């Protein structure tokens, strides 16, 4: 997911791949610079998964300021102005589009059941769910299997790397951050030829995502002594559960959860 809006020129296939490669190199450079800065700072991290905690907390503070100023007010206005059934339809629609990229990654991980069920969800919700506005597949008991390139890389043995907080984008790991440019290209909602439509779709998607987190974020801040560590632990645990389809092996002293990857 990207916070950046795009220009209008049409792209050839070759140009799109060049852009993808450049974005990947750019992310690698950004992460290298951030990690380099972190090594020069006073790091007081106590969790070996988060060696750059000092830097990550600063980025988190920046993200929270942007959220409080822009994202949260827009999401609150959206929740008040748009009826619940419309918001549900929007969320279902983006979820159905997301299943396209999940299908590709489940197939790349050779997870036959997840691939088959994701294909069924796409077919049912697209055909009988008014293009995805209705989530008939979930009501029929067909499980949703979210997957992305970061999970695919982890499935084939690529370690997560340290926990990082990306400006505007939030919690991630080095592996997931480097996979992000490809995930962006795999997002079907970004495939419109017209930049204006892409930008409008992105804005709606971001607003819907933040609206869905309004109660959760507020509850975490109220109930947690340290929302940063709560968010970090929850994110890493969720990614680990996603990697092992909800049944991760027992961790041993915070070792890299991707050392022994299973289907």
**Poorly predicted ranges:** 1-12, 36-43
Biggest sheet strand order reads: 1-2
Number of E strands? 2
* Radius of gyration of CA atoms, rounded to a whole number: 19 Å
* C-alpha termini separation: 26 Å
- Anisotropy-based shape: globular
Based on secondary structure, the structural category is mainly alpha
Taken as a percent bin, the fraction of beta residues is under 5%
> How many DSSP helices?
10
Short description:
This protein is mainly alpha-helical. The chain has helices at 13-40, 53-81, 84-108, 112-128, 136-139, 149-155, 174-186, 195-212, 214-223, 227-243; strands spanning 163-166, 170-173.
Describe the structure.
It is a single chain. With 263 residues, the protein is mainly alpha-helical. The chain has helices at residues 13-40, 53-81, 84-108, 112-128, 136-139, 149-155, 174-186, 195-212, 214-223, 227-243; strands at 163-166, 170-173. It has a domain at 14-81 and 148-243. A two-stranded antiparallel ribbon has the order 1-2. Helix 1 (13-40) runs antiparallel to helix 7 (174-186), helix 3 (84-108) runs antiparallel to helix 4 and helix 6 packs across helix 7 (174-186). The longest helix has 29 residues, at 53-81. The protein is globular and about 50 Å long. It starts with 12 loop residues before the first helix and ends in a 20-residue tail after the last helix. Residues 1-12 and 36-43 have low confidence and may be disordered.
